[in-house]
Amino acid sequence: MTAVPANLGQRYSGPEWRRLMMGRLIAFAALSAIVVVTPGPDSLLVLRNTLRAGRRNGIRTACGAAAGLFCDLLHEAAGGAGNGDGHGRLASWVWSAG
């Protein structure tokens, strides 16, 4: 992805600037829509287990996926990510606890 030069507004003006930005906005919205409607691995796992073993196992799989996301949320809230070394404070505490 290329960076937008600081003087971009000086090179383009009026309708040409609006057309350029509108084209970029439309491209971004189209790609965002594709990403939003594409099912992720959790959805595909729930679908597979539902089709193979029935509704009850599909519900169990969905609850398990939601519980995993909730645990991930708690991990993030406790400072478990984002310090740049690939491991968070929580992981360090868990490892030191043994």
Strand proportion: under 5%
Shape annotation = flat
Which structural class is indicated by helix and strand composition?
mainly alpha
- Spatial separation of the terminal alpha carbons: 43 Å
Radius of gyration: 22 Å
* SSE string: HHHHH
Q: Are there runs of 5+ residues with pLDDT below 50, and where?
A: none
Mean pLDDT: 80
Count of helical stretches: 5
- State the domain count: 2
The biggest beta sheet reads: none
Helical content (DSSP H or I, runs of 4+): over 70%
Q: How many strand elements?
A: 0
Structure characterization notes:
By secondary structure, this protein is mainly alpha-helical. It is built from five helices and no strands. The longest helix has 23 residues, at 15-37. The two termini are 43 Å apart.
Task: Provide the descriptors you would attach to this structure in a database record.
73% helix; 2 domains; mainly alpha; 98 residues
